[in-house]
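Issue 218. Parser rejects a valid record. Input:
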Amino acid sequence: MGVEVWNHYLMQDSSGPVAEFFFSSKNVGEASEPRFIGRSASFQCGATLRVSLHVDESQIIREAKFKAAGCSVLVASASLLIDQVLGKTTGEAAALGQQTEALTERLGDLRPERSECPALACQALVSAIRSYSDSARDEWEGDEALICTCFCVSERTIEREIQARELTTIAEVTAACRAGAGCRSCYPLIEDILEEVNRES
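Output the parser choked on:
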């Protein structure tokens, strides 16, 4: 494919906000060690995205990078989302990663075949945060088991809320103490606690 043809193909998607975030992408590459990796891919178009995060001891995302193999809309989606999560806690970033519609709106009118790109960016980000959450739980040395790493909610806190409020669903637990409101990697753990507490009551 000639350069002129390729540039024309690229610019079909690179106008308005897409062009702005595509051409101003500055967080391309790899976050520094220790890094937590998240990936997403599209079977429809073959695009892939890799997000890496460096999270400090306060759960603040100090560095976030991405590598994309796909169209300009995918690159713009990742660029915009990564810019938004820098300096945020993992919980705040996970919440942003679940707002696919808001990300899509920021990018303007997308062609139907490009509508999946913002979702891929969100999926890769949340996947990276889940990787961090799994690692944080493994390394936790507190007196109580840590269940939700995004919002530092312990097993005992969840148990107390379930018992006091007679909770039966994950959504109710999340509303009561925020556990599960972030990357949702703790969902299976919350389900186990719900089952155990309600079985004993």
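Fixed in the parser; the record now loads. Residues 1-12 have pLDDT under 50 and may be disordered.
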